[in-house]
Amino acid sequence: MAFRVGADARSITPVLTPAPYLAGFDSDRRATSVHDELMVRTIAIQHGDEEPWVLSSCDLIGLARVPRVRGRSVVCCTHTHHGPDTIGFWGRPLEGVSGRDPEYLDLVRLTVAASRDAALASLEPAELSAGSVPVPELVDNFRDPDVIDDELSMVVATRTDRSVIATLASYPCHPEVLDPANTEITADYPGHFCRSVERRRGGTAIFVAGGLGGMLSPRTDIHTHAEAERFGEFLAAAAEGVELVGVGSGFASEHADVLVELVNPLYQLAMEMSIVDDVEWRNQMAVTEVSLTRIGDLALAGVPGELLPKLGLQLKERLRAKGVRVPIIVGLANDELGYILAPEDFITPADYFDPGKQYEESMSVGPDLGPAIMGALQHLADDVCAPSADEPV
Is the bond preceding 265 in cis, omega lying within 30 degrees of 0? Predict the structure, then answer.
């Protein structure tokens, strides 16, 4: 077999003494208990003797350039709104209190590293297949109801006996079935999805957020753990209907740094108050990165934030035009710069503290982020999606 695959999963659930600030929704929201574990789930894929590609997905709101990963490695987040604040915005910002706990961030770094090592140590011969299916029943776009991406995309790695090593799945919907009233730590529906897939298929399930920005959110008025479980189970059942086809041959993976101007006054104020500080600078520009990995006719695009569905659909179409059968967006990959909008849709809020309909703009570094990200990914696609010398043209 041309591929070898390994997988691992382990807990990153925090201790509750002291109670961590929860990320997402409101500030000064502290955890009171643990409903279900937060996990880091890792898949490693090696093609021949090449350097393996490794993806670790954390049940967290996001990680701002932590850890700093390069090459054929991605650390992303499911974007649950019910885990510890790993960015800093959701402590007590008006008092200058960051929500981040450095000791917890150290735990996450160490656990991600251990999970990656375990996945690499477990590499074994595998066949890879992939496919997609629309699952429209679960998601609405609260910002622009006419623009919906409801595609569930999957990659499945199996042994020669057809037993499953790992299932990697991407779906574009905010993990916020639970609402701000919830103070129990939970991975929300992605956790239930992964556990259900593992019961149904075996192996390790890894969930990544697709282009869920602006605002692809759960279609429900019920905000309970039972409803989150229903969502996860429904999505896992829909996964059974994905037509999986072998991905074929070929492997390529690249990343590119992206420089953007940070013009959002909320971000600037947060940095001045040391609420957030995980920003890398170069020539007075914030540095982030994108990545693109092609495995046969499958491609995985790493995006450092929450791509709005308009851009997400454009990115998938561009990759399909390059010969990619199954394009997958890996959101919140190696960074979290907030919402990523098309420039024609970016309306600067009159008041960033009370943005109204421009909420997504108020949680974005600025209007240049979308064009910079899409341009960088287009350049990567030109290189990564070109057939190699040993592949048929």
Answer: no
